[in-house]
Protein 1
Amino acid sequence: MKNDGNLYVISTPIGNRDDITLRALQVLKKCDIIASEDTRHSGSLMSHYGIKGTFLSYNDRNKNRRIPLILNMLKEGKNIGLVSDAGTPLISDPGYQIVQAAIKENIEVIPIPGPSAILTALSVSGMPTDAFAFYGFIPKKGKRRKLILNSIGNTWTTSILFESPLRIKETLKAIYEYCGNRKVVLARELTKVYEEFVRGDIEILLQKIDNNEIKLKGEIVLLIEGNKNV
Ligand code: SAM
């Protein structure tokens, strides 16, 4: 009989620290190791919940060294919780390779669901939610950028992007070029003190940005309404 531990993929808040599930707290408490993107950040979050935890850094820079180590610990029967800095691990965050490696080794990978900026923004966007496409952070240049912009231009579904405040204006202009003057929602600082939703079409948003009516600070999810002619 195998006595492997489990790999738990645990969602944590995207801002408001009250947005964590009871199950996430229970599982985090019982994990032998918490593998996290930034151990200082996660350590401070866990101490807020009264969880001491033993932390191990797992990120895109050290993943190749960490994967064999984590697999060994799982095979020794240790339970490992994977968290990222915010929201659901693996969603534009590290974790995909360790999950893939654990599945290959027949180790049980258990999701502990919770917040993610994607669904949080979509749920109040006022845009159709029955089908949507998520593109993460779109590349700054190259073929994939064009493919994504074309895809946003041609799809009937709501499109969702993560974007930095430094690039949002440029991204809005690129979407305008490929898709015309679509309706968009800029969801900023979700669940935080300065949470803000700016709704309008691209021309209006660009005008507001130029007039400094929108604060381009913090974290942003951009939603683009689907092409109504498709
Ligand atoms: N794993 C996270 C999740 O499930 O939401 C996403 C991590 S990704 C590295 C970070 C990006 O997600 C930010 O740059 C922003 O685009 C978006 N994001 C995360 N938290 C957010 C928030 N509170 N408000 C708005 N956007 C957020």
Protein 2
Amino acid sequence: MNDDNRSGRNDTYTLTDNRHGQQVELPVAAGTDGYQVIDIRGLYDRTGLLTYDPGFTSTCSCESDISFIDGKQGILRYRGYDVEDLVARADYMDVCYLLLFGDLPNAEHKQIFRKEITYHTMLHEQIYYFFRGFRRDSHPMAVLCGVVGALSAFYHDALDITSPAHRTLASYRLIAKMPTIAAAAYRFSIGHPPVYPDNSLTFGENVLHMMFSEPTEDYHIDPAMTRALERFLIVHADHEQGTSTSTVRMTGSSGANPFACIAAGVASLWGPAHGGANEAGMVMLDQIGSKDRIPEFLARAKDPNDPFRLMGFGHRVYQSIDPRSRIMRDTCHELLEELGVHDDPYLDLALELERRALEDEYFAEKKLYPNMNFYSGIILRAMGFPRSMFTALFAVARTVGWVAHWNEMIEDPTRKISRPRQLYTGESKRPVKPVQERI
Ligand code: SDX
């Protein structure tokens, strides 16, 4: 941790061990904004005690300058810029540059950066053979896990993680190729040929082009779709130490190559409690089916004996509405309006479900509000993306965040391999019996 503790004070926190009447003072450190932390790095050496925090509900795993979340106020900032401002005044390439390099690019830097990323959108031609090895009905996230991990078998020229040039090249390759891989996974699933990226298009336009254009006819890219996709990409770009980002950091702490680290992030994102919630949310809306069944499903969500949860609701950090869900909800309305869709059944049901949940004291008491995934699936469906592609598109957007955190972790001079301990509750020492004596 930076020794220049930003509070400027030498605050400490005293722990008292009532068993032996011992006390230990631990430093309290402050970041730029948000929580203060008790620095427990010396705790074990000084007390022989470990801390216990499964799920890391009260634990900071690292120091970071990239994103800031205030869960109580419902604030998300990338490098100090509110996500709402970035959606209104920047595009996804601006945000990628911001997350990687710490500030927004000027016109010249943006042009150079956009060319760098665009230059790396193609895949090595042999990689397309991988797609043929999957069943056509494979989930795109399964294909993404496999193909992203396989990139390390192709790009040996940028695997020295101690080389800033190698790290930058691998970072650009990952950001640029993720949409090409995701789109190719979709195209193979429908038996259509993969569409190569078009360097004259923007990042978002290329995603639409590679997903939906056909080699046999012209494809018109609808600006309304591009606008909606740009917002989707921006709000999904980073989110401090979410499970998949922490997975990337933990994997990278062993010195694993960047492609393996991002493949680990893809795998972690797939879970329905995390990035898979956008797909699971649409499945849930299908299960609910109509507004008159909402009370039944709200009751199930509140029943401690029922594993059913409202997909797209709740968040480890947000104790108020996720600012991204507001942006996604507004984008839903605007896109459907621009597409001439006036009564989308999913949006109607989602709005009513949100209204009923926000009025319900269970959700208010547990501070369960819609998160980003609640509306994002409705937008992607309106744009024509199949439900199985929703989390893959989340991965496309989040790759820049994963890569930014991976670089920040590698560049941290205090970097150590992440190796948590455990509270052992198994058997104590016991002798091995000969097999004939075992019952
Ligand atoms: C993302 O971390 C990030 O930043 C992630 C993300 C990012 O950008 O990277 O923001 C993206 O993953 C958003 C979250 C998407 N997941 C979902 O929408 C799935 C549904 N939500 C939940 O499974 C849950 O809310 C989590 C996983 C998001 C958060 O879980 P926590 O913080 O571990 O909270 P918890 O499971 O301990 O729940 C606290 C209480 C429990 O009740 P009690 O045991 O206290 O009685 O709230 C209840 C839970 O049962 N609860 C829910 C609920 N979420 C929590 N009850 C009903 N429906 C829900 N959705």
Protein 3
Amino acid sequence: MRKNIVAGNWKMNKTLQEGIALAKELNEILAGEKANCDVVICTPFIHLASVTALVDPAKMAVGAENCADKESGAYTGEVSAAMVASTGAKYVILGHSERRAYYGETVAMLEEKVKLALANGLTPIFCVGEVLDERDNNKQNEVVAAQMASVFSLSAADFSKIVLAYEPVWAIGTGKTATPAQAQEMHAFIRSIVAEKYGKEIADDCSILYGGSCKPSNARELFVNPDVDGGLIGGAALKASDFKGIIDAFN
Ligand code: PEP
């Protein structure tokens, strides 16, 4: 059975002190009851060691927002998958549209990053999604299928360790959300191409998260769809009560 997951992406927000305060608040909010989904918070690199040390791993896992496409060495400013894993983090977001658009991350670079993440025991949350112009021209399936090439070179055993996230770029941080029908349609498409490549069992077990202006008021109508297995949350992950409101959509 695939897992339902709510994962936060803090992006380049929160100083270390603010991040620690948010992680503590979330830890306290989640202490009482058992969430009906796995919870992950993905933080800037510098927060990872402090945040992993303070959260209850039974309630929440921690992840990075990126890692290098090289193993180690003379790559000034980069952070390797092994370094991320050494902080106690368990996940890493890869292929976020902001990384693709602003830092030129290509299908080939992302293929390397995914392999290095897996080799270091991290679970990649691999993001795909089309821009508005591509949707307006009904190219979304083609675009997403091409982006999936970064993970379609994995063995079946490795593919079954990753999490996917569909994030239509036009919905990220814009307040514009995909309709539940648009989300379901794309998630079903992604699952169908995973099934073609790896078979139905692996496709059925693959968690596919939705991302793009997800908030407490729309999370339930998105997550109720059969192929939507949770969310990757940006803005609403920066406030503990909003993030909890999204987690509660699974209650
Ligand atoms: C994201 O960047 O992964 C995201 C989904 O952002 P937001 O929720 O702010 O749209």
Protein 4
Amino acid sequence: MKHLLSIDDLTGDQLHDVLDLASNFADVQAREVRKVPALRGKTIVLAFFEDSTRTRTSFDLAARRLSADVINFSAGSSSLKKGESLRDTIETITAMGVDAIVIRHASSGVPSTIRQWTDAAVVNAGDGWHQHPTQALLDSFTIREHFGSLAGKRIALCGDIVHSRVARSNVAAFSKLGAEVVLIAPRTLLPSNIDGWDATIETDLDAVLPDLDVAYFLRIQKERMAESLIPSEREYRARYGLTTERAAMLSPEALIMHPGPMNRGIEIDPEVADDKRAVVLNQVANGIPVRMAILFSVLGPGQFDEVDSPRASGGQP
Ligand code: NCD
């Protein structure tokens, strides 16, 4: 794997391989010394052209725990402000000798485009409404960790589907891993065409809830809404929010998930976000071993043995 741009580029077997590698890195995270020398000497640039808390921090920690050098590039404080083009910026970063560029950008397709301007590996950390493949992998990891497998599981994604790169990536990943995926949203927040999505649409959230293994709620993305697509937040919560009453309709064994950041009180009630079935913070924690696995897959020698050698586990150079 040279780049990670989209879940669509990976087969179910490849997804399993990354998740297996992530399990090994999760074991490393449980050790006293959490760092391995797997990517020593490699330089990774985190180029975030759009705000982020968890994705950026998680990539940063993942890269450091693999002993890579990390450079944080912020669009807000760069020469982009002086009018430098994205191409010049990427070529400048590349000229400094970097091995991987982890990129987040508000425009769909940017990670794919920059491949023409750099010989570094490119990892998509979220592009517009398009894809967020590392989120899909960490969500898949979280579900697999809990249930052992996604095969045959019924997973609903509820909320602002149309603006969601998380929905696009997760539907692809969950279905490739054998889950049955259901989308629930008001018509204004569903894509006009879901041909090519391996999912079905349901309109009645209450009818679906009792049969779910995973209830995955998405953020209402106010910043991406050109016009008012919901009548009011109150009404949205009443029809599509995971309220305390609705959480009671879910099975005691079901998982409640959200990629964060959460709008508590809109798509999810504050108490439900803290319910014992909610794994939102596990998702965050799993982001680190999953991103270690991804960085290792694009930059490492391609063999996990290398990571788990006595030299690696001892943390000795
Ligand atoms: C998501 C994103 O940025 O796409 N957040 C994340 O990466 N955890 C989802 C969102 O912003 O709603």
